[in-house]
Structures are given as structure tokens and as C-alpha cells.
Amino acid sequence: MHKLRRAMVRPGRDLLTGRVEVDECYVGGPEEDLRGRLNLEKALVVVAAQEDGPGIGRIRMRQIVDASAESLMPFVQESVAPGSVIHTDGWLGYSPLERNGYEHEITFLKGKKKTASELMPRVHRVTALLKRWLLGTHQGAVSHKHLGYYLDEFTFRFNRRRSKSRGKLFFRLVQQAVTVDPVTRYRIVHPLLAKAQTNHNLLGSGE
Fold it and tell me: Pick the residue with more confidence: 129 or 7?
């Protein structure tokens, strides 16, 4: 399954455009007495949801190490086309958006009568669906080191939820599977060790 999940991100896929909501969420781990960005036991995921009228268009997701601008900006730049409107809350990690070529719309959540899910409904709806999918379909048994693969699967399924041809979806996945680099079982089971070994080999070869 992980081999197929790795193929669910199409090389050179189109960037999101127009008006896009971006926010982070935490998945997994205990929640006692920890709120929002203070919860370090959970995996942090940043989500971008493209507006489609009152509904949701395409989405992008990525697991990140923290909510700093250094983590958030690469995700936005690799997910959303320059010139698009990025709608976020008031978190300072999004402050570099304008100097990186985006229009930045900020909704400060503190002191508002409406809830965050009402002020930024699309990204919160996607977050709720993701958590329900992880807890329901996968019984919450998704480790942090493999979460990225599951985010790719959820994104693949969500972005094609309106497809009338399920067989074509399978065909497209097979097409993509033969275009990505092969992956060994060792790299799937031990992604961090495999990455460290690859970096060591590159340094040893002088690259």
C-alpha cells in the first residue's frame, strides 16, 4: 500500500490557484491541557484548501516539524501559484507571504463571535474529514513517520471525489506508479535511517 501511496503525488502536478485557505492542525497523540500550536505530542499538518464558490476545490497537505515561516513558506510555494490570495489566521508564520508574491488575507480569530471553523470553513472541514478518516478507516494506527504517505492518499482521494469513473482513477494511479522512482521495503519501514544512509553516501561520493 505504501508503494501505491508514494505514487499518488503526480510529478509536476498543477498548483492551487485563486483564493486558498491555509491553516495547520494536529493529528494523533494525547490532548490533555494542550491547545493549538502548544501540543508537541501530536503530528503537525499544514492544509491548503482552494475555494470553489461556497465549496472546496482541490487540497494540499504536508506534515511539518513546526509552524515557523521556515516550515510554512516552502509548503505554500510548492502548493499554491504566485499571485493567489492566501487566507490565514493571524499567526506570524504566514507574515512573509506578501513578499513571496501572494496576496495575504488575514482573519484574526481572537475576539470574534464566530468560531474558527466558521471563519475559515473549508480548511477546517478538510481537517475534520482527515481526522475522521484516520480514526475510522485506519483506527488511529498511523505512525508519525508514515503519516506523509497517508496524507498523500487522502489528498488523492479527496481531489478525485467527484470522479464518475472509478476505473479511470485506478488507471491513473497505475500510470503514476510507473513514473515514480522504485522504493525498497527498507526505505518504507525505516525512512529516517534510509534518508541518513543516502545523505552519508552522497557526502562520501563528494556530491
Answer: 129
Tell me phi and psi for residue 17, to 5 degrees: -140, 175
Residue 46 grid coordinates: 499544514
Give the cell for residue 144.
Answer: 508519525
Q: How far apart are CA 63 and CA 145, in angstroms?
A: 10
Section 112-139 average pLDDT: 89
Give yes or no for a contact between 169 and 163, defined as CB atoms under 8 angstroms apart. yes
Could you tell me which of 55, 37, 27, 32 has the C-alpha nearest to residue 148?
27
Average pLDDT over residues 173-191: 75
For 125, the grid coordinates are 472541514
Integer Cα distance of 187 and 85 in angstroms: 37
Backbone region of residue 48 per phi and psi (left: phi > 0; alpha: psi in -120 to 50; beta: other values): beta
Q: Tell the burial category of 150 from Cβ atoms under 10 Å away from its Cβ (0-12, 13-18, 19+).
A: buried
- Containing 19, the helix (H) or strand (E) segment is strand 19-27
**Contact between residue 4 and residue 149 where contact means Cβ atoms under 8 Å apart:** no
Mean of pLDDT values over 138-162: 85
